[in-house]
């Protein structure tokens, strides 16, 4: 196996720039979702269940990380969870893989939280239009969380079909088997 490409978003973009792009992406998603839902539904908005909204807001991040884990369930012996503090306050959960994973499985792992949680949030906002503002905020927050996954998906989509993805200290390495003569 040889390394076709290494992807390190923190080195390429920097934490501050990624955070800013993510925040702007979340604001854009909120504006689009909220305006779209208020145009479609004329239902008065309710501020009931604000505590449930706060709990959902706190639960989205761990649920997002859990959904990354589900497609990698067969590799559970090589997975490692690490919890760190970001900006000295916010806990950050990292999922590290100790062995190379097939590209398709890694892409599925990256896309699962985006597809599952966003589908649930959009469906709930349509089913419960009185609380659509809550769901628009949750959707925006989750889309902001998914931005790095989307960037990784974009980079990995251009890689060779039968590549393996390995996580190292320098980022994600795209490994390709040697060409047989």
Overview of the structural elements:
It is built from five helices and six strands. The mean pLDDT is 87. It is elongated and about 60 Å long. Helix 2 packs across helix 5, helix 3 runs antiparallel to helix 4 (103-127) and helix 4 (103-127) packs antiparallel against helix 5 (132-157). The chain has helices at 9-12, 15-40, 50-69, 103-127, 132-157; strands at residues 2-7, 79-86, 90-97, 101-102, 164-168, 171-176. The protein has a four-stranded antiparallel sheet with strand order 1-6-5-4. The protein has a two-stranded antiparallel sheet with strand order 2-3. The chain is an alpha+beta fold and 181 residues long. The two termini are 15 Å apart. The protein has one domain (2-169). Helices cover 56% and strands 19% of the residues. It comes from Planococcus halocryophilus. Pfam families: DUF3267.
Short précis:
With 181 residues, this protein is α+β, with helices and mostly antiparallel strands.
Radius of gyration: 19 Å
Distance between the termini: 15 Å
Q: Low-confidence parts, pLDDT < 50 over ≥5 residues?
A: none
The count of strands amounts to 6
The string of secondary-structure elements, in order, is EHHHEEEHHEE
Total of domains: 1
* Sheet with the most strands: spatial strand order: 1-6-5-4
Beta content comes to 15-25%
The coarse overall form would be elongated
Average pLDDT, to the nearest integer? 87
Largest sheet: 4 strands, antiparallel
Q: What share of residues is helical? A: 55-70%
Count, helices:
5
Structural class: alpha+beta
Protein name: DUF3267 domain-containing protein
Keywords: Membrane, Transmembrane, Transmembrane helix
